[in-house]
Design a protein that fits this description.
The complex is a heterodimer of chains A (120) and B (287). Chain A is 25% helix and 24% strand. Chain A has three helices and six strands; from the N terminus they run E-E-E-H-E-H-E-H-E. Chain B folds into two domains: 219 residues, Rossmann fold, CATH 3.40.50; 46 residues, Alpha-Beta Plaits. The longest helix of chain B is centred in the last third of the chain and has 17 residues. The chains are: A alpha/beta (120), B alpha/beta (287).
Chain lengths: 120, 287
């Protein structure tokens, strides 16, 4: 499955960026192969709607989950509408660490996953 | 004549001066009392000085898109065209974010499926009523959480239709951003209020630059004047900005303002001083 993470630089060892809409880089990771593609965050310089743009990017990548430190109301609504699950970094330091914890089911999920895709 | 009172930042006494000018002109029997428009829609406070009795209230809104999911093909054209990222296509859903939407109508116009209609989204109100000395007072009030001043300021501007000889005084929001430019548009004259400090001068420069770009004749009022500040004098002289009035830094004035009085109430001679300043502006003379 595909996961999108907000990070400060490209690469699977990149340090996390807690800001979803304003983090420098969005990392798209295929958890089956651990291949990581870095994309500049489309919202990083936007005057408004950064979270919406990042959410749209994640939805466009057909990601099943997003991991970040903070989801604003617009990003939350957008990801929820797209049926993308949201998880928090907690005390993870790097993208790899976050994915390992995610796979182990140790990350905290935001919102109610069973309802994603129904409302919004 | 439309006069806009502005300042590069808040706290310079802009509203005190705008309201005192209004009262000064209202005391001139030869012309109808002025129209006063408080354009600081995020934090209006001119009513504290002019004490209007609001008689009319009119809701103001913008038209925001509503997507008919039955017609939408999720082609993404609307999201592409929206400069504010207020509409997004997320898989099989198209979502509108009313807080971000500026009501420009681009998405509605461009949707190839005609899947978008529009509804009115209220963003605030315009209030109107008579104030002290027969001043025709108007203000806009933005709803909390709607960062959308410009449509309200435009609506205020549009509703101002002065009688012959009636002056319009517009109190601009502080700063030099879009709402300020919206308030300045259509002005015949701009009064920039500043203080004789480095910060005051810095903000005056920015505001004077905006005025120059808009091509509005401009004069300066120095508030809280406590002696000569050569940098300010030099800037005004080299930019061709006349200093029309200096209001000294005095305890009596500061205390009066803190009690919600304006200059004309605190020291009645200011009524005449503001009238004289106004006539100087009208005659287009430089100080
Ligand atoms: S442009 Fe029209 S059809 Fe295309 S995604 Fe937007 S609302 Fe749907
Ligand atoms: S009306 Fe304009 S700002 Fe609002 S969603 Fe459509 S394109 Fe964006």
């Amino acid at each position: 499955m595909k996961i999108v993470l907000s990070v400060t630089a490209p690469g699977i060892e990149a340090p996390i960026d807690p800001r979803f809409g304003r983090g420098a880089t969005l990392l798209v990771v295929d958890t089956d192969t651990m291949q990581a593609d870095a994309h500049p965050n489309p919202g990083v310089n936007a005057s408004g709607g950064a979270g919406v743009q990042a959410a749209q990017f994640a939805a466009g990548q057909k990601a099943e989950a997003v991991i970040s430190g903070d989801f604003g109301p617009n990003a939350f609504d957008a990801l929820k509408a797209a049926g993308v699950a949201m998880y928090l970094y907690g005390d993870c330091q790097t993208a790899r660490q976050a994915i390992e914890r995610f796979q182990a089911g140790q990350l905290q999920q935001v919102g109610a996953p069973t309802q994603s895709g129904h409302h919004g | 004549m439309r006069i806009v009172v502005a300042s590069g930042k808040g706290g310079t006494g802009k509203t005190t001066i705008a309201t005192s000018l209004a009262l000064g002109l209202a005391g001139d029997g030869s012309a109808p009392p002025p129209i006063f428009v408080d354009c600081d829609v995020e934090a209006p406070n001119a009513h504290l000085f002019l004490k209007p009795l609001f008689e009319q209230s009119q809701p103001i809104g913008i038209m925001i898109p509503v997507v008919d999911e039955a017609l939408c093909t999720h082609c993404g054209k609307c999201a592409e065209v929206c400069a504010y990222h207020a509409i997004a296509v997320l898989g099989q859903k198209t979502l509108v974010f009313p807080q971000l939407c500026h009501g420009c109508g681009s998405c509605t116009a461009l949707c190839p499926e005609k899947a978008i209609s529009e509804r009115l989204d209220p963003i605030g109100v315009i209030e109107r009523g008579p104030a002290l000395e027969g001043i025709d007072f108007r203000r806009g009030l933005l709803d909390v959480g709607k960062p959308m001043s410009v449509p309200i300021i435009r609506a205020l501007q549009k509703q101002v239709t002065p009688r012959p000889g009636q002056t319009v005084i517009l109190d601009a929001p502080p700063g030099t951003s879009c709402p300020v430019v919206a308030a300045m548009q259509g002005a015949d004259y701009l009064l920039l209020v500043t203080e004789p400090t480095p910060f005051g001068l810095h903000d005056l420069r920015l505001a004077a630059e905006v005025a120059r770009e808009l091509g509005i004749p401009t004069g300066v009022i120095v508030n809280r004047d406590n002696g000569p500040y050569p940098d300010l004098e030099t800037f005004c002289r080299s930019s061709g900005l006349p200093i029309l009035l200096r209001i000294p830094f005095e305890r009596a004035i500061a205390e009066g303002i803190a009690q919600g009085k304006n200059l004309v109430e605190i020291q009645p001679e200011y009524g005449e001083r503001f009238r004289q300043m106004f006539h100087q502006v009208v005659r287009g003379e430089k100080a």
